[in-house]
Design a protein that fits this description.
The chain contains 11 helices and 5 strands. About 50% of the residues lie in helices and about 10% in strands.
């Protein structure tokens, strides 16, 4: 048995474990691997940020330090962890969903909390999307289409404007159009020609401004000078 030297002095990082774990789960869990996995999940999920936190099964199976604590034989350790996931899911401690990730199917595990249950429902309702980041899924943020954005921020949608918006959708990314409309609102230039002028300038110079910077007076008139000036009405 490997000895433990004790906790060092000073402030230490801690992991929160609900009291319900000690009163209900701990007496009921009769498998050591399941117990270790459950405690591991409390720790691992609290290392993450954001509203929806989950474990990827493949990442747990790649955690050599954790696996060594399950069994000295890597193959046996992996199988015991798989069995532990199954036990914890059957018990109701964890919630399991499979999604199609960037590299193929991914097994996700959420703690059976309100947030975990909400996340599983969101996945089942198609409100998550595949991401090219380390995480295989990301919450879909529903955005209004450009017609709704125009009506909410610029003005009434006439048939002519509708045709111009449809043409813009073919030529520019939807995110660009939304950002250009936001800039028009920021600069109190609520008309489509101003928005189109921004899009045309981004097409030639690139969209690298970002939306957090407050526009200066010079920045405001950047979009109403030069060859695009005939497109701007302010």
């Amino acid at each position: 048995m490997q000895g433990f030297n004790g906790f060092p002095p000073g402030k230490l990082h801690t992991t929160t474990v609900p009291n319900l774990f000690f009163s209900e789960l701990l007496p009921a869990i009769d498998d050591l691997a399941e117990l270790k996995l459950t405690v591991y999940c409390f720790w691992a999920l609290q290392q993450q940020e954001g509203e929806f936190r989950y474990l990827l099964r493949r990442e747990v199976l790649n955690d050599d330090l954790f696996l060594k604590g399950i069994d000295s034989d890597p193959a046996k350790a992996a199988q015991k962890v798989l069995d532990a996931f199954e036990r914890a899911t059957t018990r109701g401690t964890l919630l399991h969903v499979t999604v199609e990730g960037v590299g193929g199917p991914e097994d996700l595990y959420f703690m059976n909390t309100v947030r975990g249950r909400n996340a599983v429902r969101a996945i089942e309702a198609g409100q998550f999307e595949v991401s090219d980041r380390d995480c295989p899924v990301a919450l879909v943020v529903e955005r209004p289409n450009i017609f709704t954005l125009y009506e909410q921020n610029i003005g009434p949608l006439t048939p002519m404007i509708g045709d111009q918006l449809r043409e813009a959708e073919k030529e520019y990314p939807a995110e660009w159009i939304a950002q250009a409309i936001q800039l028009a609102v920021e600069r109190n230039a609520r008309n489509w020609r101003y928005v189109l002028g921004i899009l045309k300038r981004w097409e030639t110079e690139g969209n690298d401004r970002g939306l957090s910077k407050q526009p200066s007076q010079a920045d405001r008139y950047r979009y109403i000078q030069g060859e695009l000036s005939d497109l701007i009405d302010y």
